[in-house]
Amino acid sequence: MMVPVTIITSTRTKPIRAMLEYDFMRSAFAAAAIVALVSGAVGYFLVLRGQTFAGHALAHVGFTGATGAFLLGVAPLWGMVATTMIAGIGMGLMGERLAQRDVAIGIVLALALGIGLLFLHFFATFATQATALLFGNVLAVDTATVWTLLGLGVVCLVALAVISRPLLFASLQPELAEAKGVSLRLYSVLFLAIVALATAECAQIVGVLLVFTLMVGPAASAQRLTSSVGKGLLLSASLALAEAWLGITLAFYTDWPSSFWITALSAGVYLATALPRPSSTLRRQAARR
Amino acid sequence: MIKFQNVSLVLGGRTVLSDVSFEISPTEFVGVLGPNGAGKTTLMRAVLGLIPPAQGSIAILGKPAIRGNPAVGYMPQLRGQMAHLRLSCRDFVAGVVNGYRLGLPVLGKADHAEIDRVLDLVGARSLARRPVAETSGGERQRLLLAQALIGKPRLLLLDEPLISLDPHHQRSVIELVKSVQTELGIGVLLSAHELNPLLGALDRVMYLARGQVALGNVDDVITGPVLSQLYGSEIDVVRLKGRIFVMSGRYDVEHDEHRHDDGAGHHHHQHSHQTHPGDA
Ligand SMILES: Nc1ncnc2c1ncn2[C@@H]1O[C@H](COP(=O)(O)OP(=O)(O)OP(=O)(O)O)[C@@H](O)[C@H]1O
Ligand SMILES: [Mg+2]
Questions:
Q1: Does B209 lie in the same domain as B135?
Q2: Is residue A289 part of a domain?
Q3: Nearest Cα to B100, choosing from A185, A181, A171, A191?
Q4: Which of A105, A284, B58, B189: disulfide with B65, CB 3.0–4.6 Å?
Q5: Same-domain check for residues B171 and B259
Q6: Those residues with Cβ within 8 angstroms of residue A187's Cβ, 6 or more apart along the chain or in another chain
Q7: Count of domains in chain A?
Q8: Which domain holds residue B38?
Q9: Is there a contact between A61 and A87 (Cβ–Cβ < 8 Å)?
Q10: What CA–CA distance (Å, rounded) separates A199 from A194?
């Protein structure tokens, strides 16, 4: 799946219709759409729960899995899915105890990248693979991978939809949820397993180092733009989709990496939402009195 | 309503309550007092069925205490990260409605009516559209009370609802709880670190210390002899202009506890001088 493609260089003047004539571009748009919708929805809960760091951590662990899979001759996506799932469930089981261990997590993350590097060292096309894994290469996604991403994406979204109500309760008011019979640990484990899957998917588009850009950026922007859960979820998924598609389009016309454009758009949107909006602040202050 | 029979509660090998028995009737307003670590939170969690008694039995409305009892509403002492929550106050309260059920958090007509009802009860209807992060401490307390009232509980457990409030807001929260309690005819167990703000609202007071419980009318429980026995040291009770001060030697016991109280973590404490006699 992570096959380097020959980049077409004379695309600058071509119209959008021409862009979609290439198979790899159609695959890229399809893969990006699936991943963006999953990342936007899962990321919304990740931001709501203040667990964004978990997404970052799982991606790093996924790198080890992907490189290990290279060595074993398995598709890296599956190596990544396996390791992120194990790590996600483990993090969920450890629960609160893990939350206070920044140093331990940081060291484990560094180790995960280090081991991944070692695995890559044994592999011939070292640099290409490393770059694709770390920073993503959506233009290299083939049709078979798109179908795999779709299957995993559907699993992710269905699972999230099934647990979303108790998950929201447990995220907003854990102690009360526990008293009402919601098992905090169960939902923590289930949710992190979903995050693990989403992370593995997301890494196919933007790479393990940039998972934040699709999982957290759009969700955080959405939560600044609307205070309703339903609208927030939709907006988060829409922003992720728009940023991913626009990023790929810009990459096509500029020959700059798509991951760069996606991170730029994600950061740009977040900064725009984070800027103080004098009009609305004044309105709120007026409403308060 | 609540019946403890020879109950011992043990947490991580530490006995928090030992061999305690008491009974609380259905429409009573009981204030739960005691120093940090006395077991106020533990007692409430036991009533919720979250901590099974190591010994004895706990009955709620005639049935053993179990998790998820819809008849019990709860305002926890630890309250998540409200300070950074961008959700609207209405969605914050709505998250509790049938929150234990699987599926999408889609609300029906009856659910919306229930949310309106509790928001009206606590006078927070006007907050509904504002983000939680932009509300004041007192407004957040109203939202938490609204959450506790979801599902029409017959018993409310409020764990330190006065924390981080100034005297004025303490009074308004107590008045609010009292009016909700009388309007709905429900029982209330409210823990606090100071007795004075509660005096007008209380039916009875429960004092916890050293694993023991004293429950009764304020005049019977908050006395030198009873508290001295409970604390195991010399305690004086001074009554002044309708207010009560519990003193150990030269120190005001309640104030001393107060200063060490960090139960709310990031909340600010603006109340360290508030009950000096005379600044009512
Ligand atoms: N998970 C736990 N494991 C072991 N001991 C615990 C645990 N939680 C609380 N305790 C201990 O149980 C005792 C009672 O704690 P609890 O939280 O009920 O006190 P509290 O009266 O609510 O205090 P505060 O006024 O500080 O809220 C304390 O001594 C505390 O250290
Ligand atoms: Mg407590």
A1: no
A2: no
A3: A181
A4: B58
A5: yes
A6: A163, A166, A167, A170
A7: 1
A8: 1-69+155-280
A9: yes
A10: 9
Q: What angle do CA A27, A30, A32 make, to 5 degrees?
A: 105
Q: Is A223 on the interface with B (CB under 8 A)?
A: yes
Chain A CB contacts of B147 below 8 Å: 173, 176
Residue A113 falls inside a structural domain = yes
A228 CB neighbours in chain B (<8 A) are 87-88, 91
Within this chain, do residues B232 and B263 fall inside the same structural domain, yes or no?
Answer: yes
CATH number of the domain enclosing A47: 1.10.3470.10
Shortest alpha-carbon distance between residue A89 and chain B (Å): 20
Check CB contact under 8 Å for B87 and A169.
no
User: By percentage, how much of chain B surpasses pLDDT 70?
Assistant: 88
For ligand 1, atom 18, the nearest C-alpha belongs to: B39
B39 and B164 part of one domain: yes
The pLDDT tens digits for A20-75 are: 888 889 999 999 999 999 999 999 999 999 888 888 888 888 989 988 888 888 88
- When pLDDT is averaged across residues A165-187 and rounded to a whole number, the result is 92
Tell me: pLDDT of A125 over 80.
Answer: no
Q: Which domain holds residue A137?
A: 10-274
B143 to each of B29, B123, B124, B200, how far by Cα in Å? 20, 9, 7, 23
Which residues of B fall within a CB distance of 8 Å from A164? 103-105
Confidence (pLDDT) at B255: 58
Q: Is B263 in the pocket of ligand 1 (CB under 6 A)?
A: yes
Same domain as B183, residue B63: yes
Hey, are the CB atoms on A229 and B96 less than 8 Å from each other?
Answer: no
pTM as predicted: 0.85
| Domain presence at residue A4 | no
CA proximity to B177, closest of B213, B208, B215, B144: B144
Last residue of a domain, one of B152, B178, B209: B152
Are B76 and A179 a contacting pair at CB < 8 A?
Answer: yes
Whether residues B6 and B130 fall in one domain: no
Average pLDDT score, chain B: 85
Pick from A164, A173, A232: CB nearest B104: A164
Crossing angle of the two packed helices A143-172 and A76-94, in degrees rounded to 10: 10
pLDDT one-digit tens code per residue, A81-115? 999 999 888 888 876 666 556 677 777 788 888 88
pLDDT value for B280:
33
Dihedral Cα B112, B118, B121, B127, nearest 10 deg:
-80
Q: Tally the domains of chain B.
A: 2
Q: Are residues B48 and B140 in the same domain?
A: no
Closest A-chain CA to B96: A169
Which of residues B117, B136, B152 is at a domain's end? Answer: B152
The verdict on a CB contact (< 8 Å) between A229 and B105 is yes
Q: Which two tokens stand for residue A73?
A: 């001759």
In terms of domains, do B104 and B40 share one?
no
